[in-house]
Amino acid sequence: MPRASVEDGDRPLPAPREQAQGPLVLEHHVLKSLLGAWALAACSAEETAAVEEHLGGCGPCAEEALRLRDAVGLLHPPESLDLDPALRTRVLQRCLDRRPPRIPVPDWATPYDAETARLDALLQDIGDAEWHAPVRLRWFDGTGPTSRRTTVAGVIAHLLCVDGLVAVALGLDDPLGDGTADGPGPASRTETLWRSAPSPPTRAVRGPWREQSHDLVRTVSFTGGSGSGRLAVSYGDFTLPLHDAMLDRAFECWVHAEDIAEAVDYPYEPPAPRHLHRMIDLAARMLPVVLAGRRQEGLASPARGRHLGVAGDPGRSLRLEIEGLGGGEWLIPLDSPAAEATPEHEVAHVALDGVEFCRLAAGHVPPEEAAAGQLGDREAIRDVLFAAAALSRM
């Protein structure tokens, strides 16, 4: 049988050492030798009490203790309390590896899910006053940079309005609530909300934006599949399939989260590389259409295919090389959006950093300053860089 515990008997429990023996009494040279251990918090409770009582009456030891504590501080530099931006993704991935979700988020919607969650975490950390911090929205209007001044709350109201285009396409409520979703584009919707609000937006806008983002992810998850991703989402003067519209919303969420982080002096990291790659791929796929539109407006050089109008002529192409996060290579057809770009007809090569390319596509970097490396037809390179900047909008 196991030995009986003293608590199981009727005998009284032994008194604590401090009560039984009184405070620990040590000589001066012993207390002085304990100062190093005390500074490292390595003393016992009795030794700590004895040292601290001694420091109250011994000036030389108190000065030495202070120097030792400062030295310990140098051995343990303060670390940032901000969580690793990738921590949420790693935790969720580990959980999902153990137990897959009953209704998974479609792969093409995961960048939007991740970016809205990161922005929401940023908004959780800022105070009431910071919601009114000035933010300047920047974009490229086709010929040059432009901007619009608002606040942190105004930026979230803007995201709420434009995400509402996807919500309407999915049959959810329009945050504007006035049936204007089929007409105005993103800028018009935002201006409508800003004008109709009885006062400048406050942090109260976070609730509707957060609820709408959750509804979007939940709805595409329940209706997920290859068919639903092709549902058309109208942006007013153009449309995108749902899977591309969700990528577009993830991209804008990240860009405006950086705008907010800059306004409130908060660190913010780029998206995960696999998500960044998809955003870059969407921009690369849209470049030929934007380039053709600029050519019609007289803002780009004329098409110069060898046999323009002849079926099967691929025309010229440009190699877009993206380095770093989300990197890869894309062949961009220069003379017709419908042409199939081929390496044999490559006339130029442009190399950019992945994050730098995204900031160019957001209108945050001038086209003239974007390319890290250029080789070949300078006119073609200029047309593509300006077309990338023209992807941006308010």
Outline of the structure:
This protein is an alpha+beta fold and 394 residues long.
Q: Please name the fourth-level CATH homologous superfamily of the largest domain.
A: dinb family like domain
- In helices, the fraction of residues equals 40-55%
Q: List segments where confidence is low: pLDDT < 50 over at least 5 consecutive residues.
A: none
CATH architecture of the largest domain: Up-down Bundle
Q: Largest beta sheet: what is the strand line-up?
A: 6-5-7-8
Average pLDDT, rounded to a whole number, is 85
Measured by DSSP, the beta-strand proportion falls in 5-15%
How far the N terminus sits from the C terminus, by CA atoms, comes to 79 Å
What's the level 1 CATH class of the largest domain? Mainly Alpha
Region (Disordered): 1-21, 179-208
Biased composition (Basic and acidic residues): 1-11
Protein name: Zf-HC2 domain-containing protein
Domain Mycothiol-dependent maleylpyruvate isomerase metal-binding: 113-261
Structural description of this entry:
Residues 1-21, 179-208 are annotated as: Disordered. Residues 1-11 have a biased composition (Basic and acidic residues). This is Zf-HC2 domain-containing protein. The chain is an alpha+beta fold and 394 residues long. The chain has 3 domains: 15-75, no CATH class; 104-269, Up-down Bundle (Four Helix Bundle (Hemerythrin (Met), subunit A)); 277-303 and 313-389, Nonspecific Lipid-transfer Protein, Chain A (2-Layer Sandwich), CATH 3.30.1050. Helix content is 47%, strand content 11%. It has 14 helices and 8 strands. The protein has helices at residues 17-21, 28-33, 35-39, 45-55, 59-75, 87-98, 110-125, 152-169, 186-196, 206-222, 242-263, 273-296, 354-361, 378-389, and strands spanning 134-140, 145-151, 232-234, 239-241, 317-323, 328-333, 346-353, 373-376. The strands form 3 sheets. The chain has a 4-stranded mixed sheet. Strands 1-2 form a two-stranded antiparallel sheet. It has a two-stranded antiparallel sheet with strand order 3-4. Strand 1 (134-140) and strand 2 (145-151) form a beta hairpin. Helix 8 crosses helix 9. The longest helix has 24 residues, at 273-296. It is elongated, with a radius of gyration of 31 Å. The model has no long low-confidence stretch (mean pLDDT 85).
